Amino acid sequence: MALRNSQRIWILNKAPTGPITSETFRLETRPLPALTAGQLLVQVQYISNDPVQRTFISAGPNAIIKPGSPLRSSGVAKVLESQSQKYKVGDRVFGPFGWTDFSVVDDSFVTAPAAELPGKPYASISPLGMTSLTAYGGAIDVLDVKPEHTVIVSGAAGAVGQVVVQLAKNVKGAKKVIGIAGGPEKVAYLKSIGADAAVDYKDPNWKDHLAAIVGKDGIDRFFDNVGGDIFDHILTVLNIHGRIALCGQIAGYNGQYTPFPHFVEIASKRITLQGFTVGDYITRWAEVSKELRKLIDEGKLKVDNAETVVPTKIEDVPTTWTRLFEGKSRGKLITQLEA
């Protein structure tokens, strides 16, 4: 007899055109089939929360997730039953399981055995996950940080930003690394992981504080996770031939886009602006994960306080996810599903 014959799964109910509301998602109970050869019954334990998921559900013809479809998310799950030669009962696996408590999947659906670090059974969706791969691609390849550069990172205390800060300073040896984050606690955290300075954008005088930090040096490299007013202002302090890695625009994901009065600076300063996604580096995941493990072992990438893990009932999964857009987490926001 099957250990589980149903799942609870979150579905996109109504594509949002602005902020998320109670009508955006709905929770359904669906039957689970009996296992056939090559299949697994898994219990999802940890769910990755990522700002890009907001773009997946936006209203419009190009939406990745349509109303009536399950929400997408990577996660770590435990194998409860197995008809697979690849994975046995008790194994932890990593894959795109979505917002659900249980699932029956083909073993080919699983991305890989779950990577683990001491005290971090969710490492596949945090230090060794897509966010770190994104940071690596942007800092190492797109920005091509050199020791002579002054680097600034927006959203610096987030999942991607905190890794960029450390790669730029501790690995590439940048002359000065500045983080932008919201609140004194996050500013202190950034300094603890290697940032030379950090600015609290919630302080009404943050632009003056930044000017004092930058001085006459200006900014050579800008890793942007945020967009909005922060992006526009950094254009005014970027040096000629500066470079921008455009990773995210979280300030506008809920439809609140900000005009960029200083966008002309890109032309006048001959700034290179390059957008990129983690998909550009997916074929290098194994290579980069190995390098990240090495950096962690060497103490160049600190991961002790790199996540906000929120114990969550399946009924409250969307509520935890929306913390991404409320500044209520530091580092990687992870949902720990309560059994």
Automatic annotation (TrEMBL):
UniProt-listed CDD domains: PGDH
Keyword Oxidoreductase among record annotations: yes
Domain Enoyl reductase (ER) span(s) in chain numbering: 21-335
Organism: Vanrija pseudolonga
Alphabetized UniProt keyword annotations: Oxidoreductase
One Pfam family cited in the UniProt record for this chain: ADH_zinc_N
Protein name as it appears in the record: NADP-dependent oxidoreductase YfmJ
GO MF terms held by the record: oxidoreductase activity, acting on the CH-CH group of donors, NAD or NADP as acceptor
